[in-house]
Amino acid sequence: MQKERPFVITIAGFDPSGGAGLLSDIKTLEQIKVMGLGVCTALTLQTASQCLSLEWRSIDEITKEINVLMSHYPVSVVKIGIVKDAGFLGEIIKAVKVCNPDTKIIWDSVLKSTSEFTFFNLETLPILRNIIDKISLITPNYNEYRVLKDNGLLSNGNSCSVLIKGGHREDRLGTDVLVEGRNEILLEPTNGDFIYYPKHGSGCVLSSAIAGELAKDESLEIACRKGKLYIEQFLKSSPYLLGTHS
């Protein structure tokens, strides 16, 4: 078994355009010199501009694959992408923690796509109260953060940290906020600007970059700062919705 690179599992959807989900995560992890492993939660039919259909895989298949991968590889960090509801997420987290209780878990809390395709059943949000403290970091955009906050799921003192992405804010556009316990750290855009091209899958790229940096034993703050540098380069990589990794 190779030992030069740490292992990260991404548990996410399959996007045939390669802009989001598993394919995008693996591209990101490869660029930052992390060995990426993948478990598929859903098969989607989508392009960079729209999601046409989605078929969820069974939770039994998903947890079986998690068990096989984690029993064979020293996985220290798991990134979770689209899940259909809180119960589905809870079963995934349970499977990960049974294999290794110390595994760090990042959840990119995708509730809707940018094109307004709904992934997550919001009626199950109350179940998250029993799950959220088992997650190391949640990476919602500003709108998703408001939904989670308004449902009483995020409060000062949570053991789960939150990175609130600033791409959808009307004020201080591009400024992310990292909340660790009662501490808030502002992550400003590099050089104070936020000149970029919108990109399909940018949330996937950021969360997987952070997961990779955590696997390399960076602190959460440093991992988020490095992830922000990576996503800034990705957003500026082309004038199209599909970005490039370099």
TrEMBL record:
Gene3D superfamilies hit by this protein: 3.40.1190.20
Listed GO CC annotations: cytosol
Known pathway: Cofactor biosynthesis; thiamine diphosphate biosynthesis
Domain Pyridoxamine kinase/Phosphomethylpyrimidine kinase: 15-239
GO MF annotation terms: hydroxymethylpyrimidine kinase activity; phosphomethylpyrimidine kinase activity
GO biological process: thiamine biosynthetic process
Alphabetical keyword list: Kinase, Transferase
Top-level taxon of the source organism: Bacteria
EC number: 2.7.1.49
Enzyme class: transferase
Extent of the signal sequence: none
UniProt-listed PANTHER family: HYDROXYMETHYLPYRIMIDINE_PHOSPHOMETHYLPYRIMIDINE KINASE THI20-RELATED, PHOSPHOMETHYLPYRIMIDINE KINASE
Protein name according to UniProt: hydroxymethylpyrimidine kinase
Originating species: Chryseobacterium contaminans
